[in-house]
């Protein structure tokens, strides 16, 4: 007796889907664990007030949009595509940026550009826990969109914040 081909295909598809989901969850868990392993335990607490860029998230976004040079990966020869760059950094109790570390490795100068811009930011308002200033960490993502454009035209904004 032959099992119906459709039933076999459906079972195979479900098995592959469940396996893919499990692998995806393992990678995400491993990534989160790697992030926790790179930060001192004191940085991971829950503050009463989180660290904040002066002017809030909107001011941080405006700063990043104004400072990031979207032409960097094109000049370095990046192929068309979407590149999400992630950088982690610590905000000290004094509000200074410290321990800047790229978490991705796409190359083409993208991680270096994001590190350069983060280093240029002004002093932050530090996190506060029980009335004392604490360290806080941040992860910043930016997606560089590289499309094939004629060499004579120059697009100004080549990233998504």
UniProtKB/TrEMBL annotation:
Q: Name one GO biological process term.
A: transmembrane transport
Q: Which SUPFAM superfamilies match?
A: TolA/TonB C-terminal domain (SSF74653)
Query: Taking every annotated instance into account, which residue ranges of this chain make up the domain TonB C-terminal?
Result: 84-146
- Source species, domain of life: Bacteria
Question: Which InterPro entries does the record match to this protein?
Answer: TonB_C (IPR037682)
Q: Which Pfam families match?
A: TonB_C
Q: What is this protein called?
A: Protein TonB
